[in-house]
Amino acid sequence: MNVETVLEISHLFGGYGKDTVIKDAGLKIQKGEFLGIIGPNGSGKSTLLRLMSRVLPPQQGTIKFQGRDIQRIVLKEFCRHVAFVPQDTLINFPFSVEEVVLMGRIPHLGRLQYETKQDMEIAERCLSLTDTLSIKGKGIDGISAGERQRAIIAKALAQEPILLFLDEPTSHLDIGHEAQIMDLLKRLNRDKSLTIVMVLHDLNLASEYCSRIILLDRGGVFQDGTAEEILTYQNIESVYKTTVIVNKNPLTGKPFVVLVSQEK
Amino acid sequence: MHNHWKIKVILLFSVLFLAIALGLSRGAVHLSLAELILRENRHIFALRLCRILTAIMVGSGLSVTGIALQAILRNPLAEPYLLGTSSGAALAAVTAVLLGISAIYLPLAAFIGAIFTVILVYHLARQGGRIAAQSLILSGVIISVAFSAVIVFLISISGNEALHGTMWWLWGSVQVYDLKLLSAAGLIVALGTAVIFILAQDLNAISLGEEEAIHLGVNIETIKKILFFTTSLVTAGLVSVCGIIGFVGLIIPHIARMLFGPNHRLLIPCACILGAAFMVFCDMFSRTLFAPLEIPIGVITALAGAPIFIILLKGRQQVE
């Protein structure tokens, strides 16, 4: 199989104002990967995601998207290929689900250009992919958190990205909705070979779904590999400063991290 | 909920035409539209038409400005005067009167004062090339409070009779019978509205959040700067000609959103017409309720706007 690099990061430094959070990070993301980024609080997971999705400009180093420096790509063009799903979306006004999903077409439209029939069809397809077709007429502020996150994913998919970033997309959801969304992403990754890069808090979720995991520590890449290589009790102890036991999920065979309480 | 928008738009235009017809015929003297065309009434017709055009300009300008500010500041309480324009204009006008500058130059002085204040607010709020919504609101409010204090101070120590001439500023007026002034302000409002309408899709994206807008390809900082200066210019133009007409820029955006939904591409033109119709009605009431006395238009906008808003809000809650 021909391996195609979607995103390549080298010697990246970045942060907020004069603060540097990401220090000399390097990373290559191949097409079709389901990449999980894990690490303790403050290790720079979200900052790295912000740098890769152009919310923050790098202080030093380069990020290349399909061989081109992302800072040199027109933002609107970049957003025709790359989409982002945040942890939670606070929407100011009562837009309908359908209106929000149609906003995913903004990067494809010219100024003052209205959506064509084709744009409507793409939005419709994304609504049905995320199982939100039945609530498309409802206000985005009148649905559950799980439905809202699915609608936001539909909006991101309407951008027709080849690369999708997600920042802890399930952290506000219960375990049922969490599995639903992760399964949906896995399906998109497998069937449409959509490249997925996701920041995760939950190590077991990363283990179950990600084809590759990056463990960040103090702004740099501590280790990069499969779930079995990364999720060892030694790695977790040295980065998270806590004792854990690593078992195996009896059904999938993936590593399963169990917390060990220090108090009796 | 936002279906039937075509019918709503037709209704909206009918309301505007009704407002214009009533505004032309009602006043200290009631005249039918047929009588208005008569030669002996031509003078009344011209004066009323002038007021109606001013009201349309103020209503649409303030409504659209309010929509743009509520979207970029992500704050439902944002309104055109929030960022200090009005107090800057008022301070400049009061100072001009105290310096004995001719009344003809008052609008110019007010306009310069408003623009100067906006630049001051902008520089106070800026942090390394970025402007955060919160600091923009804060610096606007602080400048407004400080300038208002200076205005009261100047008025209280001066005893200048001419200052009473600037008092109408506080409640606004649409009595602009100077065609040059009216066309200058009208041009600014029209251009500003056009700029805001062109950015309607960006305002939709910003409603999802600033970072979300970036992910949709919107250069958020540039858009914010363009809109900040556009809305300031429009407000400055209106304030210097008509004084401070409160409530319209806050309430019409909300009412329009309830009627036509939040999509800015439909909302902006609709709020434009709705605001215009609302102001023409308010002007008519200000002239006729206690004729021949005239009630300041700002009083009418507040007294009429609040109940309408509450009725719509309650109606909406029942639907949900």
List the SSEs and their pairings.
The complex is a heterodimer of chains A (264) and B (320).
Chain A: E1 5-14, E2 22-30, E3 34-38, H1 45-52, E4 60-65, E5 68-69, H2 75-78, E6 82-85, H3 97-103, H4 117-129, H5 145-158, E7 163-167, H6 175-191, E8 195-199, H7 203-209, E9 212-217, E10 220-225, H8 227-230, H9 233-240, E11 244-248, E12 255-259
Chain B: H1 5-25, H2 33-36, H3 42-72, H4 85-98, H5 106-125, E1 126-127, E2 130-131, H6 133-158, H7 179-198, H8 200-207, H9 210-215, H10 220-242, H11 248-260, H12 264-288, H13 297-319
Antiparallel strand pairs in B: 1-2
Helix pairs in contact in B: 1-3, 1-12, 3-7, 3-10, 3-11, 3-12, 4-5, 4-6, 4-10, 5-6, 5-10, 7-10, 11-12, 11-13, 12-13
Question: How would you sum up this structure, described in words?
Answer:
The complex is a heterodimer of chains A (264) and B (320). Chain A is α/β, with parallel strands linked by helices and 264 residues long. Chain A has one domain: 3-Layer(aba) Sandwich (Rossmann fold), CATH 3.40.50. Helix content of chain A is 31%, strand content 26%. Chain A is built from nine helices and twelve strands. In chain A, the strands form three sheets. Chain A has a six-stranded mixed beta sheet, sandwiched between helices. A four-stranded antiparallel beta sheet of chain A has the order 2-1-4-5, covered by helices on one side. Chain A has a two-stranded antiparallel sheet with strand order 11-12. In chain A, a hairpin with a 6-residue loop joins β11 and β12. The longest helix of chain A is centred in the C-terminal third of the chain and has 17 residues. The model of chain A has no long low-confidence stretch (mean pLDDT 92). In chain B, α12 packs across α13. Chain B is globular, with a radius of gyration of 20 Å. Chain B starts with a helix and ends with a helix. The mean pLDDT of chain B is 87. At the A-B interface, α2 and α3 of A face α8 and α9 of B.
